[in-house]
Amino acid sequence: MASIILPMKKAAAEKILRGEVKADARRRLTSRVEAGDWVYMYATTPTKKLLGRFKVSSIHRTVVQELVEKFGDLLGNGVGRSKLASAKDGTEVAIMGIESPMRAEAPTDLRDIDMYPPQESTVLTSFDELVIKYKLWPGINWEAEEESLRRRECQN
């Protein structure tokens, strides 16, 4: 499983964190993203902070027309929906199902942890993800949390 940082507008991140949006469509998304991966939401200018994360429940790669027909109701009225409507026929897109959104206790500017804001989705190293988790959620014992997740996944 991979973890990525995904730049997006603050309004889109907030809708995900409030549970108003159950899927997110992207024209540019690294092909490494799979169900089970974690996506860290980086709010672009003027906010410039990591606001939280969500788990990818599913991923579908297709063209815009098919995406809107199959999944339009999941997209709600998010920022991405208007961009999809204006996309050209045949434009390739990916839609991620969203589950377990988690708001950061301490939203953080990437530059404060010696990382550069991404222009598009960026795969994190294990070390970078660990640094981000401890910075965004300082009150969580991440070792115990990851062990608990592993046990639940083995039971399923």
How would you describe what is shown here?
This protein has helices at residues 10-17, 64-75, 79-85, 126-136, 142-155; strands at residues 3-8, 23-26, 38-43, 49-63, 92-108, 122-123. The protein has a single domain (3-155), classed as Hypothetical protein (Archaeosine Trna-guanine Transglycosylase, Chain: A, domain 4, Roll), CATH 2.30.130. The two termini are 17 Å apart. The chain has 156 residues and is α+β, with helices and mostly antiparallel strands. Helix content is 33%, strand content 32%. Strands 2-5-4-3-1-6 form a six-stranded mixed beta sheet, with helices on both faces.
Summary tags:
single chain; 156 residues; alpha+beta; Archaeosine Trna-guanine Transglycosylase, Chain: A, domain 4; 5 helices
Secondary-structure-based class equals: alpha+beta
The main sheet comes to: 6 strands, mixed
How many β-strand stretches?
6
> How far is it from the N-terminal to the C-terminal residue, by CA?
17 Å
Spatial strand arrangement across the major sheet: 2-5-4-3-1-6
Uncertain runs are none
Overall pLDDT confidence: 83
So what's the overall shape?
Answer: globular
CATH fold group:
Archaeosine Trna-guanine Transglycosylase, Chain: A, domain 4
CATH class, named Mainly Beta
- What would CATH call the homologous superfamily? Hypothetical protein
CATH hierarchy: architecture: Roll
Number of helices: 5
Tell me the Rg in angstroms. Answer: 16 Å
Instruction: Estimate the strand proportion.
Output: 25-35%
> What count of structural domains?
1
